[in-house]
Design goal:
This protein has 598 residues and is of the alpha/beta class. The chain has 19 helices and ten strands.
Length: 598
């Protein structure tokens, strides 16, 4: 999916994000500031003063007040200062970077997970990964680097004072190249932002395509489309390479301009002070101090210019992160909350089942949902599910069966209508219709590259006896005996080491081990043979406390159903028992006939 950013997403400005992150760990930021100030002084001011004193002493222009050993002591002090500053960096920079990036990722993930479960991300999975990795890291890095700018401005001010005390006119002329570079940097900011946005978008396309490709390897092989897929990948990667090189080249050109300002300044000094040096009004020590400070100022100007370019690029990163959170509050990205990266991981807790969690009835009143920009969806759906019953939703392909389940469970937000649990309205069905009240297995279950046990539990604490009871209910007991490591078998990415039927029954066992009153299947038995399907439903219906809501068109299940809801074009065409529908509904008779011929 391509992100164009044709409209700006409501987002905090980059400076506000930086400020909020700075105040998140103010003590560490202050330690980093002191460390930067110490090392800048030791690198860029103290050596200039030492060099001036040394050359003035050697040429006889001035005598050292405290002798040669004062220079030695000063050098030793600067070395100690640099060592202390290095320890300060280690103490402050590492946790600043870790804590801030963790907080940003935590907020991103929190608002992504608050989206309705079936609502697609505004960007591809590959682009989302890019936000979490590259864009997030830009912010703590900038917070750290901003101290260099603040201290650098002070260093420049001190350098100007020292240089002006020697020769105001030479100082002014030597600073002109730095002013010119500042103007160039300001003019270039628009182009910097443009190149960064284009480069990041191209990179997101590549990572997104890689994610989609690895998720559809089997489909590509079946279609013998490997060459076309690889050709398209090369095309996307070439576009990314060109845009990235363009961005890097522009940055390097600006960096070259910044870096050469001190050379221009040195040339100006040589032209201006040649006569003064011959007459003794401008000493060799003065000249060395000017050159050293001007070099330092040039380095600081280079750094400041590149940081200004990075700030413009940071605006793009912030916009990209807010785009991923889509419709989140304006302060969502920088919400402060505890970040503890030391000690044991927090325990995963699951709510205990209460009396109010037991199902008596689940009903919906005039549920309506249409996909954005489309007329497809469901319209004015009413239903009522009683405890201990089997309700089957059926209909042709595209009639709205899966959409109805997703809206009912809060995985899609309805345009209108209400959902009730035991007669009480649910304001947030997506947060309520979860274990221990309800469990859901989607049409295409998702397994992870881990052990079968971990795929069934997903962090829950259940005994082997409880797991085996759930797998038996899902008709997985005989399969477990054949798997090489039983519950510890690694199932591979998306369960690739299991058959389609084993994946579906593993997903069913994952649902059963949660022991909810209501279980919701979306065409669970589509990959099962007739015998296995018969065993599955026989075992499910032996449990009199289980209430089932199922999307299916299979005859054995329709015969068992207490109530059938027949959908057509997103609306309830008719409902009742199988015998009633076969008598009163031509649509049901046609579906029954198709299932027989199928």
């Amino acid at each position: 999916m391509e992100t164009t950013f044709t409209q700006k997403i409501p987002a905090l400005p980059a400076w506000k994000v930086i400020w909020e992150m700075l105040t998140f760990r103010p003590w560490l930021w202050f330690v980093d500031l002191i460390s930067v100030a110490l090392i800048r002084f030791c690198w860029q001011v103290a050596p200039a003063l030492i060099i001036k004193a040394f050359f003035d002493m050697v040429t006889g222009e001035a005598q050292l007040t405290f002798g040669v050993w004062s220079i030695v002591a000063f050098l030793a002090a600067t070395w100690i200062g640099r060592v202390l500053a290095s320890y300060g960096f280690y103490y402050a920079d590492v946790p600043i970077f870790a804590d801030m990036s963790t907080l940003l990722r935590k907020n991103l993930l929190k608002y992504i997970l608050r989206r309705p479960g079936a609502s697609q991300l505004p960007d591809s999975a590959g682009e989302a990964v890019s936000r979490f990795k590259t864009d997030v890291n830009e912010i703590p890095l900038f917070v750290i680097l901003i101290n260099d700018v603040m201290v650098g401005l002070i260093i420049i001010a001190v350098a100007i004072v020292l240089m002006t005390s020697i020769s105001p006119s030479v100082t002014i002329m030597a600073l002109i190249p730095l002013v010119i570079v500042g103007i160039i940097a300001n003019i270039a900011t628009g182009r910097i932002e443009h190149y960064r946005r284009a480069s990041r978008q191209a990179g997101g396309k590549v990572t997104g395509f890689i994610g989609e490709f690895f998720g559809a390897v089997q489909a590509v092989k079946v279609a013998t489309a490997e060459k076309n897929v690889i050709r398209h990948f090369h095309k996307l990667n070439d576009e990314r390479r060109i845009l990235t090189i363009r961005e890097k080249l522009f940055d390097e050109v600006l960096g070259s301009i910044y870096r050469n300002t001190s050379t221009l300044g040195t040339g100006v000094i040589l032209v201006l002070v040649g006569q003064s040096m011959r007459t003794g009004n401008f000493t060799l020590g003065d000249f060395s101090l000017f050159v050293y400070l001007l070099q330092s100022m040039g380095d600081l100007t280079t750094f400041g210019g590149m940081l200004w370019a990075r700030y413009k690029q940071l605006n793009v990163s912030v916009q990209r992160m807010y785009h991923l959170m889509e419709n989140a509050p304006i302060n969502a990205l920088v919400e402060k909350s505890p970040v503890d990266l030391e000690g044991p991981l927090p325990e995963v807790t699951y709510p205990a089942k209460r009396a109010s969690d037991s199902l008596r009835s689940l009903s919906a009143d005039h549920l309506t949902y249409h996909f954005p920009g489309s007329t497809n969806g469901i319209t004015d759906i009413n239903l009522n599910i009683e405890r201990g019953t089997l309700t089957v939703i059926t209909g042709r392909i595209g009639s709205g069966k899966t959409t109805l389940l997703r809206v009912l469970l809060g995985l899609l937000t309805p345009d209108s209508g209400e959902i009730f649990w035991n007669g009480e309205i649910l304001k947030s069905p997506g947060d309520f219709l979860i274990p221990p009240r309800c469990a859901y297995t989607a049409q295409v279950p998702r397994l992870f590259s881990n052990t079968l046990r971990n795929n069934l539990l997903l962090g829950m604490n259940r005994s082997d006896e409880e797991i085996y009871r759930a797998t038996k209910l899902a008709v997985m007991d005989s399969d477990l005996e054949q798997l090489e490591d039983n519950l510890e078998t690694m199932v591979g990415a998306r369960g690739v080491k299991l058959s389609g039927g084993q994946v579906q029954r593993s997903a069913a066992a994952r649902m059963f081990v949660r022991e909810t009153d209501l279980v919701v299947f979306d065409d669970l038995s589509s990959a099962l043979d007739v015998e296995t399907e018969q065993q599955l439903w026989d075992r499910i219906f032996e449990n009199q406390n289980m209430t089932c809501l199922v999307v299916s068109h299979r005859r054995p299940l329709l015969r068992r159903a207490d109530h059938i809801i027949l959908l057509k074009d997103g609306k309830v065409e008719s409902e009742g028992t199988l015998d009633e529908l076969l008598t009163t509904s031509a649509e049901m008779r046609e579906l029954w006939k198709q299932e027989e011929t199928g």
